[in-house]
Amino acid sequence: MTREEFCSRLGIGSATLQLWTSEGWLLLDDTGSSSASLSEIDLARGQLIRHLGDEFGVNAEGIGIILDLLDQVHGLRSVLREVLQSSAARAER
């Protein structure tokens, strides 16, 4: 989806999207272009950012910390999955 569609679906302005990208909360493949493609995963992350700030009152620093921790957990789950697959492959030999 385009930046405009993304902002419309989340109910945010382009300045908010720019803030989120400058904070590193969202990574866009084409910075500066209005035609940058955002995915449904980006949208879900945007919804999380909105919920953290709007519904839970988490400040910007807290949002950054929470997103960093979630990213670490996701990375660890990927590594664990690889270890388990490797272990299972060895057990089959």
Explain this structure to me?
By secondary structure, this protein is mainly alpha-helical. It has 4 helices and no strands. It starts with a helix and ends with a helix.
Keywords:
mainly alpha, 93 residues
Give a brief description:
Helix content is 71%, strand content 0%. By secondary structure, the chain is mostly helical.
Helix content: over 70%
Low-confidence stretches: none
State mean pLDDT (0 to 100 scale).
Answer: 92
Number of strands: 0
What does the largest sheet look like? none
Q: Order of SSEs, N→C?
A: HHHH
Helix and strand layout, with pairings?
Layout: H1 3-10, H2 14-22, H3 40-55, H4 60-92
